[in-house]
Amino acid sequence: MDQNQSLTTLHTIQQWQPKSQLTMNESVKCAKISKLRAIDRNETKFKISMLIARCCAMLNIDKNMNNEQIKFAAEHFVEHHWIYSLEDIQLCLDRGAAGLYGAIYNRLDLSILNEWVHKFEQERNAHITAMRSQEQTQSNLYDVFKHPQIEQAMKDVHDKMLHKELPPVEA
């Protein structure tokens, strides 16, 4: 990665804030933690800590995570969930906090977050597979031949080939 790209990525990490509305389509296209941590590991860990703290604040539970647990979880995410983007992590935590990955039984810790990531990963993989399938369908090579100009050119070539194959007519 060249220096300009590194500076742009660093600026992106530093300015990053959670999104108010986020979709899977957006999150899968964003810079991955592996790339972000190579530029600034501490800032990446800080942003993940911020997302975990945000998730904790959204829940009304007695056994919430303390600062040390949040730091530990953030480091765990940087080390083990580097294939995701910050947006993926946000979407996972938002969906988990909303109860989409199961009931929350008055506690939140790293084991619960890992369960959410596992369920999110299944959902994300299915989404990526569907996106790739749709892209493949949309970019089908044979669709090029359906264009009117291409159809006409193919017909012209066919007609010329047909005339060349016909035996000469004897008089």
Structure in words:
The protein is mainly α and 171 residues long. Helices cover 68% and strands 0% of the residues. It has 7 helices and no strands. The protein has helices at 3-15, 24-27, 33-58, 67-80, 86-97, 110-138, 148-165. The termini are far apart. The mean pLDDT is 86.
Main sheet: strands, sense, barrel: none
Question: Gap between N and C termini, in Å?
Answer: 74 Å
Rough shape?
Answer: elongated
pLDDT averaged residue by residue: 86
- The arrangement of helices and strands along the chain is HHHHHHH
Count up the helices. Answer: 7
Query: In percent, how helical is the residue content?
Result: 55-70%
Count of strand segments: 0
Please state roughly what percent of the residues sit in beta strands, choosing from under 5%, 5-15%, 15-25%, 25-35%, 35-45% or over 45%: under 5%
C-alpha-based Rg, rounded: 26 Å
Taking pLDDT < 50 over at least 5 consecutive residues as the criterion, the unreliable ranges are none
What would you call the structural class? Answer: mainly alpha
